[in-house]
Design a protein that fits this description.
Blueprint (H helix, E strand, L loop, with lengths): L1 E6 L6 H15 L6 E3 L12 H5 L6 H13 L2 E3 L3 E4 L5 E8 L5 E6 L5 E3 L5 E3 L11 E5 L2 E5 L8 H9 L4 E5 L7 H16 L2 E5 L16 E3 L5 E4 L5 E6 L3 H9 L19
Parallel strand pairs: 1-2, 2-3, 10-11, 11-12
Antiparallel strand pairs: 1-15, 3-5, 4-5, 5-6, 7-8, 9-10, 12-13, 13-14
């Protein structure tokens, strides 16, 4: 499976971000790519006040444009994430996935809102304008089952494990770590989640914009089921293309059968709520 990640600069206008995605696909991505992955909030400058301003309903303009991008290029599109407005006017950080025909095959609303206050570092409170989702998201493709979550979601071991138990061999994570958490946690998180669950972990970030109020760490990454980094870039704009072998997932799980060795007679995720 060939995956292209677009680490792009988020534009101030939604249309300009969509036009940039189309231009990059046309000029920099070969026709044999199977999956294209976009960053978290790829068309909305990452600021609490912006989420309601940029939010659209499912099947509105941005949704349709992403569907058309998948169809016109005959690719699966993990369309990063966007600000979504629901029928009750709640706003979510939402990731859509479209198949080669442009059909939506997955939708994930960010479950864990990024409310942090790091002494001497980053302060951010997504819950001021966003509502949390409540769904563990996996989806079927011609290559097998994939998982999907958004940025801060991936810090929680329970979520990654449940996606894995539902059959995921690859987990797509549109994400925008910042200059406080990125240097310390980005690579560690992706490597640990990939090796503990024996999956490919695909993290796609926006490029860094020094003029933005929220500065992305960038460093889009692919980690394999052994925990090895397949590729990682810096903070600048990049298109990253990798071939990944899903047979390797089964090879690793056979040689080091972590999932089979779980002591379900002693512990289970269900016990958390007991």
């Amino acid at each position: 499976m060939k995956i292209a990640q677009i680490q792009m600069k988020v534009q101030k206008e939604k249309k300009d971000s969509l036009d940039l995605v189309k231009k990059i696909i046309k000029t920099q991505i070969p026709n044999d790519v199977d999956f294209i992955a976009l960053p978290e909030m790829f068309n909305c400058p990452y600021a609490i006040k912006n989420f309601p301003l940029y939010a659209e309903r499912e099947m509105d303009t941005v949704w349709r444009e992403c569907s058309n991008i998948a169809k016109e290029n005959n690719v699966y599109l993990s369309a990063g994430s966007v600000a979504e407005l629901d029928k009750n006017n709640k706003v979510y950080n939402t990731a859509y996935v479209f198949d080669r025909s442009g059909k939506q095959i997955a939708k994930h609303r960010k479950m864990h809102l990024f409310d942090i206050d790091v002494k001497g570092g980053q302060y951010f409170k997504e819950s001021e304008t966003l509502s949390p989702g409540n769904q563990i998201t996996t989806f079927e493709t011609e290559f097998g089952i994939m998982g999907l979550c958004i940025c801060y979601d991936f810090r929680f071991p329970e979520l990654a494990r449940l996606m894995t138990l539902k059959g995921a061999k690859v987990i797509f994570v549109p994400a925008a770590f910042n200059m406080t958490t990125g240097p310390s946690h980005w690579q560690v998180m992706f490597r640990s989640q990939a090796l503990n669950n024996q999956v490919y972990a695909i993290g796609t970030a926006p490029s860094r914009d020094l003029d933005a109020s929220y500065k992305s760490w960038g460093h889009s990454i692919v980690v394999d089921p052994w925990g090895a980094i397949v590729s990682q870039v810096d903070e600048k704009e990049h298109v990253i293309i990798n071939d990944i072998d899903l047979n390797y997932v089964e090879e690793v799980r056979a040689q080091l059968p972590l999932l089979k060795h779980r002591r379900r007679d002693v512990y289970s995720l269900e016990q958390i709520n007991k």
